[in-house]
Write a structure and sequence with these properties.
The protein has a single domain, classed as Glycosyl hydrolase domain, family 43 (Tachylectin-2, Chain A), CATH 2.115.10. Helix content is 5%, strand content 43%. It is globular, with a radius of gyration of 18 Å. The chain starts with 27 loop residues before the first strand and ends in a 5-residue tail after the last helix.
């Protein structure tokens, strides 16, 4: 039986058992989806691609709030049960290290990760082009903006929930200035969350149809005795635009640029109305996976059609077994990623 490592109990984790009519895939959808719908608050048209963590007996989320003026910013949301959410009226108040306000032109697709007692919010912002922004907090009131880790262009930055080899470890996807028609996942490390190096290639799009254009890290990796469980998004192109599906891989615990297993089939692809119809049709975009160390259950939050937030469930046993039984890795996947 597969085990979670360094994962505390989350007794308030939302959960539904697998439906009897579910497919063979290891993820199944919450039957009350979406959990955050359109126009959830005055001034916000859509909430999607948002990250969730357990906090003070409930949950806290850093959400992508797409405002009615079309500009996305990062808001906080709180929930007792992970299903019903209260969204704060103003975006997070970012300050620099001297306490001066920091104004962002835009900020989207945040991730939220706890490392050594500090919460880090990571997002995509304008830095003379799309680039990674970061902030830290210990109380979700005061947010200190950190130095930008990389030059533009880059997206989909996801921090590991613990240091590896004594270093903070971050996944990202170098890109271009537009809707990137390419994309590989890379890994970088830092001793201090300021200076980043030790860059390694992790994996590229594959020949499988659902991820043959680009890929990007999704939820923060979950540590298991088999390796780091990574939910990521894979993109294919169609005559009607891109389609975003959710994939799964397992990375080496000590050298996570090495891919041990990579599922050749998607774990979830747009099939429901709320995934296929919306501001950007045909999108399932994972940003958070909350695991309960006691039951080994996982609640996966994902953006649906760039319009709403949806929820799916699995267990560590089911998802790891499915990935390993349907794994297909290349020599490049299995390498250390150095050239």
């Amino acid at each position: 039986m597969y085990q979670l490592l360094n994962t505390p109990p989350v007794p308030q984790l939302p959960w539904q058992d697998r439906p009897k009519n579910a497919s063979e895939l290891p993820l199944w959808r919450y039957d009350g989806n979406p959990v955050i719908g359109r126009h959830p608050q005055t001034g916000i048209a859509r909430v999607f691609n948002s990250a969730v963590l357990p906090y003070q007996g409930g949950f806290i989320a850093s959400i992508r709030g797409e405002r009615t003026n079309g500009i996305p910013l990062i808001f906080l949301a709180r929930s007792k049960d992970g299903l019903s959410w209260e969204i704060e009226k103003e975006p997070i108040d970012l300050r620099d290290k001297n306490g001066s306000p920091v104004a962002l032109r835009y900020a989207y697709d945040p991730r939220l990760v706890l490392v050594d007692g500090v919460y880090y919010v990571i997002w995509c912002q304008d830095f003379y082009g799309a680039a990674i922004g970061m902030a830290k907090t210990t109380d979700f009131v005061h947010f200190e903006k950190l130095e930008n880790p990389f030059l533009p262009f880059n997206r989909n930055a996801v921090l590991f929930p613990r240091k590896i080899g004594g270093l903070y470890t971050l996944l990202s996807r170098p890109s271009d200035s537009g809707h990137t028609p390419f994309g590989d996942i890379f890994l970088s490390q830092s001793p201090d969350m300021e200076f980043w190096g030790h860059h390694r290639h992790v994996m590229s799009p594959s020949g499988n149809w659902w991820e043959n254009v680009k890929i990007g890290a999704g939820a923060a990796p979950i540590e298991t005795d088999l390796g780091w469980l990574l939910f990521y998004h894979g993109v294919t192109g169609t005559c009607n635009g891109f389609v975003y599906s959710i994939g799964g891989a397992i990375l080496d615990r000590d050298e996570p640029s090495r891919v041990l297993y990579r599922c050749k089939t998607f774990l979830l692809t747009p099939e429901t109305d709320y995934e296929q119809q919306g501001f950007v049709p045909n999108v399932c975009f994972p940003c958070a996976a909350v695991a309960d160390g006691a039951t080994r259950r996982i609640a996966l939050y994902y953006g649906a059609a760039d319009t709403t937030v949806a929820l799916a469930f699995t267990t560590v046993e089911e998802v790891l077994r499915y990935i390993t039984e349907n794994s297909e890795t290349s020599e490049e996947d299995r390498s250390s990623g150095i050239r």
